[in-house]
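Hey, I'm writing a tutorial for new members on how sequence and structure tokens pair up, and I'd like a real worked example in the thread rather than a made-up one. If someone can provide the structure for the chain below, I'll link this post from the tutorial.
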Amino acid sequence: MNTNVTAMDQRRARRRAADFTTVVTDVISGQPIGQLGNLSSTGMLLIAERAPRSDAVYQVSLSLPGPLRAEPVELGIQEQWHEPTPRAGQVWAGFRIVAISDRDAARLAAWVDSAGAAG
């Protein structure tokens, strides 16, 4: 399981904007916690209706588009920051990935590196 990423690596990681709609779901509660804004191999931006707890760790599931959609990716994520969006009732929240299986890490990296990635 990959868990060893420095803060510098997190900020330098290639990010890909979500050009599709996917809900990120809390695996424990079964409730959605937000929609994916962007994703990298080390973290994600969520657009949520309410702020996450500061420094909270969540076990989440999300689907990637295309052939990867068949099986959701599961991640352990930790809240790093959050702030209100210009749109009332929404919050941007940044998370770092703290746990991911090697298989899901490879699938995530392949998606980030595929066509349309933004760096």
